[in-house]
User: What shape does this take?
Amino acid sequence: MVLSHNEEIAGDLVQATCLRALQRSEQFQEGTHLDRWTFSIMASLWKNELRAERIRRGGGFVDAEEVLVSDGAEKIETNILLTEVLAEVQALPEAQRSAVLLVYVEGLTYAEAAATLEVPIGTIMSRLAAARFKLAALRRAEDGGPKRQVKTGQ
Assistant: This one.
C-alpha cells in the first residue's frame, strides 16, 4: 500500500512478488532476512511497473487524500497529519521517496537500502539528506517561514 496507494494494485504486487520469490528461491541466502529479500524483489517489480506505466500512459501514484479516509472522530487529527506527511513524501522525486520509504517506513539500515536500490550507501545518505531538507522547506513554507529554493535533482 505504501508503494502503490491502491489496494488492488498492492495485492497484485504482493502476488507477483511471491511468484518471483518462489521462482528464484535458490537465490535466497539462509541466515538473511526473508522480509528484506522479498521487499527488494517487490521494489524492483514496482520500479519496472512505474517505468511501464509511464510509457503506456504517464500515470503513477494515487493521491494520498484518495487513500486515507477517517473513520472516527478520534482518528481525524491523525489522518490529517498522515495525509499531509504522505502528500509531502509523495511530492519528493522518486529516488528520494524510495530512500525515505525504505529507511524510515520499512526500517532498513542505510546499507540495506543501498543494496535494495543497488546504489552506493553515500547515495542513500545524500538522498535522505536532500529529502529531509525538502520536507523541512515545505514545512517552513506552510508555517509562513522564509522560503528557500530547493534543488530536487536526485
The two ends are 24 Å apart (CA to CA). The mean pLDDT is 77.
